[in-house]
C-alpha cells in the first residue's frame, strides 16, 4: 500500500484554495500597486510640522492615513497569503521583503505624527472640530493618541528611549535563540526500552501518549534540559522584567502592568479580577484533578499525567464537507445574517483548505478588507472541525468590523481578538453534546471541553499570576534568581492543582519553558477572552435573538470604535467584574459532574 503523498500547490483543486485574485487579479497588478505605495513616504513627510496649522490640513492627513491603511492591507494580504501557499517560492518571499522596506520608510517618514498631535493645544483642537465637521469622525482616534500626553517625553528623551529598542528586546531574542536553537534534550525511553527524540514539537505528543513510562521520561527530559541552564534562564527572565520596569518608570506609569495594559485601554482591575475569580473557584480544578486521577486509575497523579486523554479509545473522523455542515448547524442560533455570511465564505473560496508541499503550517484568519481569508490544513479530525469554527469566528468578526466601521476604527484590539472565535467553538461544543446519545462520544467531547478550561482558563491565569509576581519583585528592586522563580512557580502549582497531585520537583522549572513570559503581560487575555466567549455563548443559547443582536451589533460590528470593555458590555458581558469568569467556571464544574456520571 503506497503512502499518501502531499500534493504540490499546482495539484490542489481550485475550489479548495482561497481566491487571492479578489485582492489583485495578477502579480503584475500587485507590483504596480507597490510602485504607487513607494511614493507614500514622501507624501507623508510633506505634512511634517503642519498637523497643527489648520483643521483642513489635519483632516487631509488623517484621510491620507486611511488610504495608506487600505493600500497596505491589500498589499500585505496578497504578499503574505501568496508566500504562505508555498513557502519555497522565492518570488513571494521577495514580495514580503519589499513591502516591509516600504513599511519601515513610511514609519520613519511619519515619526512626527504623535508628538505633533499631542502638541496641539486643547482649545485649538476643539476649534478645529468646529471649523471642519469631518474631523469629528476622528475624535476618538485623536483622543486615544493624546491620552499618551502624560507618558510622552521630551524630544531628546524620546530619542534616547528609541535608541534602547534593541536592548529592550534583547532578553526575548536571547531566550528565543537559546530555547529554540541551542537547547537540546535527552531522548525519552518508553516501557519497551525504545527511545524517542524529545523536541519542542514532539514533547506534547509524548506526554499525551498512553505509555506512562514514556510520559514520565519525556517530562524528566525536558525539565532536565532547562534545569541544566536554570541560572541562565533566570537571568534572562530577570532582564526581561527589569526592562519592562525601566520603560514603565521612564514613561511615568505606576507599574509595568499598567504600562502594558494601557495600550489596549484595559484597566489593571481586569487583570486582578481574573486572578481573584479563579482563586475563588479553585474547588472546580481540585474536582477535575480528582476525576482525572480516578479515570486514569493511578495511585498517584503526576504532572506528566495531565495531558494524556482520559477518554482514549474513541476517535471522530470528520471530513471537511461534514465539518462545514456541522458548523452551520451549530451556529444556527447566531441568526440568518450570520449564517448567510458564513455560507458566502464557504462557497466563495475564503478558505485555503488542505495541506500542500511547503504550505505554512497551522491555521489563521486574515481580515482583508475585500473579505477575510482563512488558512487551514484540514485533516478530517474533531480538532480540525473546531479549528474551522474558530477561524471563521475570527473571519466574521473582521467581516462585520470592516463592513460597519470606517477605516480608522475597523481593527479590533488583541484583548477581544479571541472572543468571537472561542464563542463559535463553545456553540459547536454545546451543539455536539446536545446531539449525541452515545456515551463514549459524549465523554470524548466533554473531555475535550474540560481540557480547554484547564489549559486556557486556569493555566493561563496561573501564568498571568506568575508574571505579575515576577514584575512586583523586580519593582521592589530585588533580583529574580532561579531559586526564587522555582519557589514561586512551585507554590502556584500547589495552589492551582491542590493536594490531589504530586508536586513533582521538575515542574518547578516549567517557567523556563514558557516563551509567553517575554510577551509583556499577554497571556491573561487568553483567559479573559475565553471567559467572555463562554458567557456570550451561554447568553446566546438562553436568550436567543436579543442576545444575538447585542453580540453582532454591539461587539462584532464595533471594531475599536470604543474601548474593549465597553464593546463587551454592549454584548452583555461585563469584564470589569468577576462574574463572567465565575460563570464560566461554574460551567466547568457542571461538565466535571457530567463526566463523573458518565464514568459511573
UniProtKB/TrEMBL annotation:
Residues 208-586 form the Peptidase M3A/M3B catalytic domain. Residues 116-185 form the Oligopeptidase F N-terminal domain. Its EC number is 3.4.24.-. Keywords: Hydrolase, Metal-binding, Metalloprotease, Protease, Zinc. InterPro entries: OligopepF_N_dom, OligoPept_F_C, Pept_M3A_M3B, Pept_M3A_M3B_dom, Peptidase_M3B. CDD domains: M3B_PepF. GO terms for biological process: peptide metabolic process; proteolysis. It holds the Pfam family Peptidase_M3. The keyword NADP does not apply. NCBIfam families: pepF (TIGR00181). Belongs to the peptidase M3B family. This is Oligopeptidase F. It comes from Ruminococcus albus.
Amino acid at each position: 500500500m503506497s503512502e499518501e503523498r502531499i500534493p504540490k500547490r499546482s495539484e490542489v483543486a481550485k475550489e479548495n484554495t482561497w481566491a487571492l485574485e479578489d485582492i489583485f487579479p495578477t502579480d503584475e497588478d500587485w507590483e504596480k500597486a507597490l510602485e504607487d505605495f513607494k511614493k507614500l513616504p514622501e507624501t507623508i513627510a510633506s505634512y511634517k510640522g503642519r498637523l497643527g496649522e489648520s483643521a483642513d490640513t489635519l483632516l487631509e492627513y488623517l484621510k491620507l492615513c486611511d488610504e495608506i491603511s487600505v493600500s497596505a492591507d491589500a498589499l500585505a494580504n496578497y504578499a503574505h497569503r501568496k508566500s504562505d501557499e508555498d513557502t519555497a517560492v522565492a518570488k513571494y518571499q521577495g514580495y514580503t521583503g519589499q513591502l516591509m522596506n516600504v513599511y519601515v520608510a513610511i514609519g520613519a517618514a511619519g515619526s512626527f505624527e504623535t508628538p505633533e498631535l499631542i502638541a496641539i493645544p486643547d482649545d485649538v483642537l476643539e476649534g478645529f472640530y468646529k471649523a471642519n465637521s469631518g474631523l469629528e469622525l476622528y475624535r476618538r482616534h485623536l483622543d486615544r493618541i493624546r491620552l499618551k500626553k502624560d507618558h510622552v517625553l521630551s524630544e531628546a528623551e524620546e530619542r534616547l528611549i528609541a535608541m534602547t529598542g534593541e536592548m529592550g528586546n534583547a532578553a526575548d531574542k536571547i531566550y528565543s535563540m537559546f530555547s529554540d536553537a541551542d537547547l537540546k534534550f535527552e531522548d525519552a525511553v518508553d516501557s519497551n526500552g525504545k527511545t524517542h527524540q524529545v523536541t519542542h514539537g514532539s514533547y506534547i505528543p509524548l506526554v499525551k501518549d498512553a505509555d506512562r513510562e514514556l510520559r514520565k521520561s519525556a517530562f524528566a527530559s525536558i525539565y532536565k534540559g532547562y534545569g541544566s541552564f536554570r541560572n541562565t534562564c533566570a537571568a534572562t527572565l530577570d532582564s526581561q522584567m527589569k526592562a519592562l520596569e525601566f520603560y514603565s518608570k521612564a514613561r511615568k506609569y505606576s507599574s509595568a502592568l499598567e504600562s502594558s495594559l494601557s495600550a489596549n485601554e484595559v484597566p489593571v482591575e481586569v487583570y486582578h479580577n481574573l486572578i481573584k475569580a479563579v482563586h475563588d473557584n479553585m474547588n472546580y480544578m481540585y474536582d477535575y484533578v480528582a476525576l482525572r486521577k480516578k479515570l486514569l486509575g493511578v495511585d498517584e497523579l503526576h504532572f506528566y499525567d495531565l495531558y494524556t486523554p482520559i477518554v482514549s479509545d474513541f476517535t471522530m473522523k470528520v471530513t471537511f464537507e461534514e465539518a462545514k455542515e456541522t458548523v452551520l448547524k451549530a451556529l444556527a442560533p447566531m441568526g440568518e445574517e450570520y449564517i448567510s455570511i458564513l455560507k458566502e465564505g464557504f462557497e466563495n473560496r475564503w478558505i485555503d483548505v488542505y495541506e500542500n508541499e511547503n504550505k505554512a503550517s497551522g491555521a489563521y484568519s486574515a481580515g482583508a478588507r475585500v473579505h477575510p481569508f482563512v488558512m487551514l490544513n484540514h485533516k478530517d479530525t474533531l480538532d480540525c472541525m473546531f479549528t474551522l469554527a474558530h477561524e471563521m469566528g475570527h473571519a466574521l468578526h473582521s467581516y462585520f468590523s470592516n463592513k460597519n466601521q470606517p477605516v480608522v476604527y475597523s481593527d479590533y484590539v488583541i484583548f477581544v481578538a479571541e472572543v468571537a472565535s472561542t464563542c463559535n467553538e463553545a456553540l459547536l461544543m454545546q451543539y455536539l453534546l446536545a446531539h449525541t446519545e452515545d456515551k463514549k462520544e459524549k465523554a470524548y467531547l466533554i473531555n475535550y471541553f474540560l481540557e480547554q478550561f484547564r489549559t486556557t482558563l486556569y493555566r493561563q491565569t496561573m501564568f498571568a499570576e506568575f508574571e505579575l509576581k515576577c514584575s512586583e519583585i523586580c519593582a521592589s528592586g530585588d533580583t529574580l534568581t532561579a531559586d526564587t522563580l522555582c519557589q514561586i512557580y512551585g507554590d502556584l502549582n500547589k495552589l492551582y492543582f491542590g493536594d490531589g497531585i504530586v508536586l513533582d520537583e521538575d515542574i518547578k522549572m516549567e517557567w523556563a519553558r514558557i516563551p509567553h513570559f517575554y510577551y509583556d503581560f499577554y497571556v491573561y487575555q487568553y483567559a479573559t477572552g475565553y471567559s467572555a466567549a463562554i458567557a456570550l455563548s451561554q447568553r446566546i443559547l438562553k436568550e436567543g435573538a436579543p442576545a444575538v443582536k447585542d453580540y453582532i451589533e454591539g461587539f462584532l460590528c464595533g471594531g475599536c470604535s470604543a474601548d474593549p470593555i465597553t464593546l463587551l458590555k454592549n454584548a452583555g458581558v461585563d469584564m470589569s467584574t468577576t462574574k463572567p469568569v465565575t460563570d464560566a467556571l461554574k460551567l466547568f464544574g457542571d461538565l466535571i459532574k457530567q463526566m463523573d456520571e458518565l464514568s459511573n
